[in-house]
Specification:
The chain is α/β, with parallel strands linked by helices. The protein has two domains: 37-53 and 86-255, Rossmann fold (3-Layer(aba) Sandwich), CATH 3.40.50; 271-501, 3-Layer(aba) Sandwich (Rossmann fold). Helices cover 34% and strands 23% of the residues. The strands form four sheets. Strands 6-7-8-3-9-10 form a six-stranded mixed beta sheet, sandwiched between helices. Strands 15-16-17-13-18-19 form a six-stranded mixed beta sheet, sandwiched between helices. A four-stranded antiparallel beta sheet has the order 2-1-4-5.
């Protein structure tokens, strides 16, 4: 059992230069009890304090994250301040928002085995646990792989497997579905179902709610660092769609996606063409092999496919980040070399921590501009709901806020070709729609946007065209400006979820 008694926490002022404009994540007077065997969903808009609350439960606050901390958190009656992180880890398994931050090994099998080995389990038991977890999460194809060769979704699956391999009594999961495809989400839901049936305590912070329907038995809704609602599953599911929408929450099912209003028609004859593409990471099999494909210029194209299909690699090759890429990239006027594409393109990376460099949010936007324009920079921040944080250090922001800073920087760059790699990962409903509006703005000004995503609602709100990759090849491509294309897209996502229903 976990008990929070009047807990308040705020991060150090060094990470938040203006204490009156702090980036979010602070908690105020949190009191709650998490009973053994319960399944608790933490939800709320980006920056409301969900991640900070998970850090209370797994002991990272106060043992790792510094700040002003009052009140007490008890794990089975013991104050977590009096327990070591090792002691807490015997009871609590964690999956972080950014899986890279919890890896200790360079290969996947060793990573799955790390937790049990660290807890002194015998070698034969470690092997059995790794084998069992790999089967439950369908991780067998990922065993004995380099961590560095995995896609973002594959890393997320390994992180989930690492937590499960310890067999803890309590699971604390922070956005575990981020970057997972529908197949992987279905497998993950089945694992959660199994853990729940075993009597495990599960605390999960999520924006994607549809795959958790029927699993959670309690919902804590956070707003501005406080518990603004404490619902039973029945009470929460009884809220109207409009009520949840007003709360900034994603839908509880995907059935209503067919009614999402589509984007304005932008299709034109101008296209980008890619020919004779091949690419392989060092000492790895060929990742991409594309004879020829094209996508419309001055429009927004979604790149879809399952984890490991080569989507992010394709985007990185296209914008010139991979030196060993072979192939040609051309528009109506010319072929572009790799160096030319580096100047032509701007990429919002899956892990935005790689592209946040400055001491303030405002400086981050100014850095991406060809000519500094503070007025225009502040206008962009206003559009992205980031203006109150202009003086904050980017690394002091929540995951969703960092994502929006990177998107804002891309817009400020005014590059003709902008690539977004999972731009809605970690974003609530409000800010997902906000980013969709930004992508629409890019396309409406005649620039080209390419979006790698597993978010069908986002695609329907801003994209006109789809490239479907599987196994490093273009499986199909089609317009979604008509009902047939929309049905084709939804079939891809919904058929995967139907697969999940049959497993229970």
């Amino acid at each position: 059992m976990i008990e929070c008694q009047d807990v308040s926490f705020s991060y150090p002022a060094s990470t938040l230069p203006d204490s009156e404009r702090q980036a979010g994540g602070a908690l105020k007077h949190i009191s709650c009890t998490i009973e053994d065997g319960s399944f608790v969903l933490l939800c709320g808009t980006s920056g409301c304090g969900k991640t900070t609350m998970t850090r209370l439960f797994n002991g990272l606050i106060p043992h790792y994250h510094e700040g002003t901390y009052t009140g007490s958190v008890y794990l089975d009656g013991k104050d977590t301040r009096d327990l070591s992180l090792f002691d807490i880890s015997l009871k609590v398994g964690s999956v972080f928002q950014n899986p890279r931050s919890q890896f200790f090994n360079v290969d996947t099998t060793s990573e799955l085995a790390f937790g049990p080995e660290n807890h002194g389990m015998p070698e034969d038991i470690v092997r059995d646990w790794v084998k069992r977890v790999a089967a439950q999460l369908k991780l067998e194809p990922l065993l004995d792989r380099s961590i560095f060769s995995l896609s973002g979704g594959e890393k997320q699956k390994i992180a989930c497997g690492s937590a499960a391999a310890i067999d803890p009594d309590i699971y604390v999961l922070d956005e575990p579905s981020s970057n997972l495809d529908a197949y992987a989400i279905a497998d993950f839901r089945q694992l959660l179902f199994t853990l729940k049936s075993q009597g495990k305590t599960i605390i999960i912070s999520e924006h994607r709610l549809y795959y958790l329907s029927g699993l959670f038995d309690r919902v804590l809704y956070l707003k501005d660092g406080e518990i603004d609602g404490d619902y039973t599953a029945e009470e929460f599911c009884g809220l109207s769609a409009k009520q949840r929408d007003d709360m900034g929450l994603r839908p509880l099912d995907l059935a209503g996606l067919s009614e999402v209003e589509g984007t304005p028609q932008r299709m034109n004859e101008a296209v980008w063409t890619i020919k004779n593409v091949s690419f392989a990471y060092k000492h790895e099999p060929e990742t991409l092999h594309i004879t020829e494909t094209s996508f419309p210029s001055g429009s927004a194209t979604a790149i879809i496919g399952h984890n490991g299909a080569g989507k992010s690699t394709f985007a990185r090759c296209l914008c010139g980040l991979e030196k060993h890429f072979k192939g040609t990239v051309q528009d109506q006027s010319k072929n572009y070399s790799r160096k030319e594409r580096l100047k032509l393109c701007y990429m919002v990376m899956q892990d935005v921590n790689h592209q946040l460099f400055t001491e303030s949010v405002l400086d981050e936007i100014l850095l991406s501009m060809r000519t500094e324009d503070k007025q225009r920079a502040r206008e962009i921040l206003q559009e992205m709901d980031l203006l109150p944080y202009e003086d904050c250090h980017p690394m002091g922001l929540s995951g969703g806020q960092k994502q929006r800073v990177a998107v804002a920087s891309a817009i400020a760059s005014e590059r003709p070709l902008i690539l977004f790699d999972e731009p809605t990962s970690g974003l609530d409903l409000f800010h997902m729609r906000q980013v969709a509006n930004v992508v629409n703005q890019v396309a409406n000004t005649g620039r080209t946007a390419l979006v790698v995503t597993h978010d069908p609602e986002f695609i329907l709100r801003c994209c006109n065209y789809v490239l479907h990759l599987e196994n490093g090849q273009i499986q199909e491509s089609y317009s979604i400006e008509d009902s047939d294309g929309r049905k084709r897209l939804l079939k891809f996502f919904l058929s995967d979820m139907k697969k999940e229903v049959s497993t229970e």
